[in-house]
């Protein structure tokens, strides 16, 4: 199976590969830097989901792959509190679409104020932790769960949801 991944982020790429391995599916993977066509910092479930879907579609078309996968991290407001939100999309060459969402938790007020001021979560997390490249490592989810859930493991769960839907669909059609 030929899988096109709509990112060059190593954490997301490894999450996709690991999920396919866990599902015991043989696949060849190619990753592409493709646009999400949403804000640099998506601020809603809808925008974050659309970013994942756009990445999946662009990747699938670039490779003319059997499957394209897109993953997108964002934030959303719930009752005045800013939460993480994460989405994935899997599109097939035939045009079938599967989506899934992942973990979300409240973010500190300091991060929320930075998002309100127009900053992106990645640089805010770097500043918050006094480190560089959090988005390419454990991510905000790792920082705020004390690494019990990392960005990779969270995205693996999203991809497993996508793969499960996809394999079920293939088995009944």
UniProtKB/TrEMBL annotation:
Keywords tagged on the record: Hydrolase, Magnesium, Manganese, Metal-binding, Nucleotide metabolism, Nucleotide-binding
A biological-process GO annotation: nucleotide metabolic process
Cofactor(s) named in the record: Mg(2+); Mn(2+)
Main enzyme class: hydrolase
GO molecular function term, any single one: nucleotide binding
Keyword set includes Nuclease: no
Superkingdom field: Bacteria
Binding note for cofactor: Binds 1 divalent metal cation per subunit; can use either Mg(2+) or Mn(2+).
Ranges of residues in domain Non-canonical purine NTP phosphatase/PRRC1: 6-160
Keyword Manganese: yes
Reaction catalysis annotation: XTP + H2O = XDP + phosphate + H(+); ITP + H2O = IDP + phosphate + H(+)
EC number(s) stated in the UniProt entry for this protein: 3.6.1.73
Summary of the function given for this chain in its UniProt record: Phosphatase that hydrolyzes non-canonical purine nucleotides such as XTP and ITP to their respective diphosphate derivatives. Probably excludes non-canonical purines from DNA/RNA precursor pool, thus preventing their incorporation into DNA/RNA and avoiding chromosomal lesions.
Quaternary data: Homodimer.
Annotated family: Belongs to the YjjX NTPase family.
HAMAP family with a match to the protein in the record: Non_canon_purine_NTPase_YjjX
Protein's recorded name: Probable inosine/xanthosine triphosphatase
Species in which this protein is naturally found: Chryseomicrobium excrementi
């Amino acid at each position: 199976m030929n899988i096109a991944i709509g990112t060059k982020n190593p954490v997301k790429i490894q999450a996709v590969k690991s999920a396919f391995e866990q599902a015991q599916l043989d696949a060849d993977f190619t990753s592409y830097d493709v646009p999400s066509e949403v804000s640099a910092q998506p601020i809603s479930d809808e925008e974050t989901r659309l970013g994942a879907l756009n990445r999946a579609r662009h990747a699938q078309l670039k490779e003319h792959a059997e499957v394209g996968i897109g993953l997108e991290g964002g934030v959303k407001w719930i009752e005045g509190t800013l939460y993480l939100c994460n989405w994935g999309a899997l599109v097939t060459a035939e045009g079938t679409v599967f989506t899934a969402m992942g973990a979300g938790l409240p973010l500190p007020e300091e991060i929320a104020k930075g998002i309100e001021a127009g900053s992106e979560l990645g640089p805010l997390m770097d500043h918050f932790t006094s480190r560089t490249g959090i988005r390419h490592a454990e991510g905000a989810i790792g920082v705020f769960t004390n690494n019990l859930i990392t960005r990779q493991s969270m995205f693996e769960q999203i991809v497993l949801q996508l793969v499960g839907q996809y394999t079920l669909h293939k088995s009944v059609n």
